Amino acid sequence: MLLMLINTLVLIGPMLLLALLRLLLPGQRPKAECARAVMWVAETWAEISKALFAWLLPTQWDIRGVQGLRKDTSYLVISNHQSWVDIPALVQALNRKTPYFKFFLKKELIWVPLLGLAFWALDYPFMKRYSKAYLARHPEKKGKDLEITRRACEKFRDLPVTIVNYLEGTRFTPEKHAQQQSPYRHLLRPKSGGLAFTLAVLGQELDALLDVTIVYPGQSIPGFWELISGQVARVIVDIQHRPLDPALWQGDYANDPAFRSFMHHWVAERWQEKDARIAAIRAET
């Protein structure tokens, strides 16, 4: 933890300076160069973190399907979500193999010390989620989160990017699984709205889908403390490289029920495949 903190403190200064320069400099080219430099700092931080993990932790990272990944192309990543350990798993699998990834984050995470500033510098979009009860009382807020998605994605047009979307919207727990009455054995019910709006804005710029499945074999889902204290023996990250069907961004999700049904069906198919893949991976271990 001390070494991770030092790594963060050393590199967050240059990252914030470059982010401020991006705001202040005129012209698109200088801004784009600053954005690339911010990404390079983030990748360097991630590579140092990977080296620390390899040096001090016994965890075996079983990464599958990274052959052929490129840094000069843009990807959409969909992944199951179980723990904060999912983030280091994605770093292990994708850092410096694809463009540095962007997450859609809860708005409250901007207040996390140091990390909130780093998320801002990296242009991570912060989402404000409203409950159905809140929207019933404040209908003027309907669609605001999707508008944030649209504005955030507009920023990603100028540079290659890897956009990570956790379709479940929250981390898997047995309690949530039971409460949702999820039809999947290992997954929560997926949501398609944020994905649909991301594709509507960026679909033509995205070159492929990376369908990522993370499995913690032979143990309950670990937390971040279990990882950094050496209690996680193995993490499997399985990556399926798929083409993106242009039909996924050629409809109006908000106003076209037929297209919305098409998106729901496409997402459900991916989730059925992922549920079966998790079962198969668990069976082999």
Q: Which characteristics define this entry?
A:
single chain; six-stranded mixed sheet; alpha/beta; two-stranded parallel ribbon; Glycerol-3-phosphate (1)-acyltransferase; 285 residues
Write the layout of secondary structure elements.
Elements (H helix, E strand, L loop, with lengths): L1 H23 L3 H29 L3 E5 L10 E5 L6 H9 L6 E3 L1 E2 L8 H7 L4 E2 L4 H6 L6 H11 L7 E4 L8 H7 L12 H10 L5 E8 L8 H5 L5 E9 L14 H28 L1
Parallel strand pairs: 1-8, 2-6, 2-7, 3-6, 4-5
Antiparallel strand pairs: 7-8
Helix pairs in contact: 1-2, 6-8
By helix and strand content, what is the structural category? alpha/beta
Residues in helices, as a percent range: 40-55%
Q: Please report the distance between the alpha carbons of the first and last residues.
A: 30 Å
What is the mean predicted local confidence, pLDDT? 87
Count of the domains: 1
Q: Can you tell me the overall shape?
A: globular
What share of the residues does DSSP label as strand, in percent?
A: 5-15%
Strand order of the largest sheet: 1-8-7-2-6-3
CATH topology title: Glycerol-3-phosphate (1)-acyltransferase
CATH class: Alpha Beta
- The number of strands is 8
CATH architecture annotation = 3-Layer(aba) Sandwich
Query: C-alpha Rg, in Å?
Result: 19 Å
Low-pLDDT windows of residues: none
SSE series:
HHEEHEEHEHHEHHEHEH
Question: Counting H and I runs of at least 4 residues, what is the number of helices?
Answer: 10
